[in-house]
Amino acid sequence: MTGWRSSDMPDQHGRTAVVTGANSGLGLITARELARRGARVVLACRSEERGREAEERIRAALPGAEVEYRALDLADLSSVREFAAGYPYERLDLLIDNAGVMALPRGRTADGFETQFGVNHLGHFALTGLLMPKVLNTPGARVVSVSSAMHALANVDMGDLNSEHRYRRWIAYARSKTANLLFVHELARRLTVAGSDVVVAAAHPGYAATNLQTAGPRMEGRRSAERFMRVGNRVFAQSALAGALPTLYAATARGVRPDSFTGPGPVGWRGSPAPSWRASWTRDDVAGERLWVASEQLTGVVYEGLPH
């Protein structure tokens, strides 16, 4: 894994990938590099304007690339269902659950969920479940969930999944990222029981310079906080390309194990892809199953073809 670069990716011709949040930042880089290696890439984005722009940018950089925008708003389960119902291909080799929001002011999704938990976890839980028949029917398929080292700040609170009792933006973010890892853990377990060769893994970018850090302060007009984040991006962060490498590794590298967690090494916030530390609570079988059951109840999505 030492010094792994995007150019080390195996050839992706004949493979189809869906990348959520592919209009900017890590998602755009992930989609572009998969297309560079020959994959057909579906850019699953909330904004049509930015999604179409990303499609044009990739095609301009890579003439002949197979990329297409399709509408997906993870904050609206009706949009998630429409995307899955309209997915036009028989195979789905790579599902990259990349899109996310971070440290936003308190808000609600279209279905009434706390925004960070709703977008970062429940939206992707529903999307993955609705697309799972395509994944299961594709030999060698993978699902990659983009979590964060910040998950270490907090475990999920099964008694308050939507932060009704108290809302603290960074704790809510950490809980949503822990939920990503518990989801990967439980889905990997269920796939193993089913005898499936689908690999589900997690990745995180470390500290990468994207617009994720500035979105929350900008929404609230906290200009000093936004400036602070911009300075941090310039001085301390690695590039968006470097931040996307752990995701690309988890999605394409040989030997990636189910329920693995890849991030920048060796320090965890910048560097080449390497196995990443994760909190012990993200490998809790009981918590994983409880979150799974709650997620099914909240979204109404049940994974067909997988045992309990």
Topology:
Blueprint: E1 16-20, H1 25-36, E2 40-45, H2 48-61, E3 67-71, H3 77-86, E4 94-97, H4 115-136, E5 142-146, H5 169-193, E6 199-203, H6 212-220, H7 223-235, H8 240-252, E7 261-264, E8 273-275, H9 285-299
Parallel strand pairs: 1-2, 1-4, 2-3, 4-5, 5-6, 6-7
Antiparallel strand pairs: 7-8
Helix pairs in contact: 1-8, 3-4, 4-5, 4-9, 5-9, 6-7
InterPro entries: KR_dom, NAD(P)-bd_dom_sf, SDR_fam
Protein name: SDR family NAD(P)-dependent oxidoreductase
GO molecular function: oxidoreductase activity
Short description:
The chain contains nine helices and eight strands. The chain has 308 residues and is an alpha/beta fold.
Provide an overview of this structure.
There is one protein chain. It is built from 9 helices and 8 strands. It has one domain (11-299): Rossmann fold (3-Layer(aba) Sandwich). 43% of the residues lie in helices and 12% in strands. An 8-stranded mixed sheet has the order 3-2-1-4-5-6-7-8, with helices on both faces. β2 (40-45), α2 (48-61) and β3 form a beta-alpha-beta unit. With 308 residues, it is α/β, with parallel strands linked by helices. The chain has helices spanning 25-36, 48-61, 77-86, 115-136, 169-193, 212-220, 223-235, 240-252, 285-299, and strands at 16-20, 40-45, 67-71, 94-97, 142-146, 199-203, 261-264, 273-275. The protein is globular and about 50 Å long. InterPro entries: KR_dom, NAD(P)-bd_dom_sf, SDR_fam. GO terms for molecular function: oxidoreductase activity. This is SDR family NAD(P)-dependent oxidoreductase. Residues 15-158 form the Ketoreductase domain.
